[in-house]
Amino acid sequence: xxxxxxxxxxxxxxxxxxxxxxxxxxxxxxxxxxxxxxxxxxxxxxxxxxxxxxxxxxxxxxxxxxxxxxxxxxxxxxxxxxxxxxxxxxxxxxxxxxxxxxxxxxxxxxxxxxxxxxxxxxxxxxxxxxxxxxxxxxxxxxxxxxxxxxxxxxxxxxxxxxxxxxxxxxxxxxxxxxxxxxxxxxxxxxxxxxxxxxxxxxxxxxxxxxxxxxxxxxxxxxxxxxxxxxxxxxxxxxxxxxxxxxxxxxxxxxxxxxxxxxxxxxxxxxxxxxxxxxxxxxxxxxxxxxxxxxxxxxxxxxxxxxxxxxxxxxxxxxxxxxxxxxxxxxxxxxxxxxxxxxxxxxxxxxxxxxxxxxxxxxxxxxxxxxxxxxxxxxxxxxxxxxxxxxxxxxxxxxxxxxxxxxxxxxxxxxxxxxxxxxxxxxxxxxxxxxxxxxxxxxxxxxxxxxxxxxxxxxxxxxxxxxxxxxxxxxxxxxxxxxx
Length: 483
Prior knowledge:
The active site is at residue 448. By secondary structure, this protein is of the alpha/beta class.
């Protein structure tokens, strides 16, 4: 058996692991990165990038379908060639992965160890039985994987996860999507627009990551107008029949209905990849899900020389968060024991559905829990249904709720569904990170006519409810028509 003594061992070679490796190397050359699977990151291989390629194809079809609303009538039927759609997705996906692999190739071979690591104790790792590593500091950056009920495995190869979608050579006839979260909504809507018969099922009524009841109700209605969505379905049975899956469920009319599909797509959440690390052989404190608890700003666990980053930390499973956490954890592992708090940016997340969903800062649920006893926050709102630029583009669906603190007037967060929500969210996130008040935000420039004028309308409503600004003026002239 090979034996190595290192200053820092990074478990995982994804976004967080690569960031941790580079940060640790700034302090010491004696760093190894352990990876059991393929390099390339979840985002590039099976996550954000290939899913956006599928969504882009679906949007091209949708634009053609909306053209008659502008008086433009395409001639003939729209032909969707599933093989060409998937060929482009895989080609571009491989290109993105290639960029990541170029960076991995630049890492010295002696710094990379292939295999799956398990803990022997707080300082010792065993990699696939071939290498024993004694490390002064360790960063856990093992990522996450899809989670679904074990009984679904009885469906065999008719059960798929989002990873499998991007290996298709052609589009299927029909898919049942379980889980109307980020992945389920994005893939479900895109497949629907590409001509695949889909139904999206969920439990408990949750739609996307939203916590604001008003915005969630709007989103639920908007999606139901386009495709079948039941966020709290009653499934009587689901079984494999030949090369199909037969699902018997109770529909919106309260009647039993049978849906026969080519595939069942499990988009019911993800779990941190820490359960196979023999983590019980360490003295780390774990949460109720078996994930090591860690300081939000240093990523340090209860064992002072062990850090956790990225999806494995179960804090915010997003690429930009994984990159930030990897840098913080790697920097602290490298400079240990000189631990420093890293920059944790304001929360921002987006669902690339149509209309898009986005959240910024503290959510409605977080604010309700934190400020429940003092009624210390209020909500400003705007509908995009009559917003000028949105109507011009026939993209006038959506609702934006912004939250402000009583007394200080500070902007606290937002939840929204609407056109270009990804861009609106960035503006609001920058304001949130700079701890701006609503009045300060309203002093910023707003061009006309732009969708961002809707943000101003919501902020004006919020400022009025905070008793800081004037009451809202209906058909405000400086906003132009339709605002």
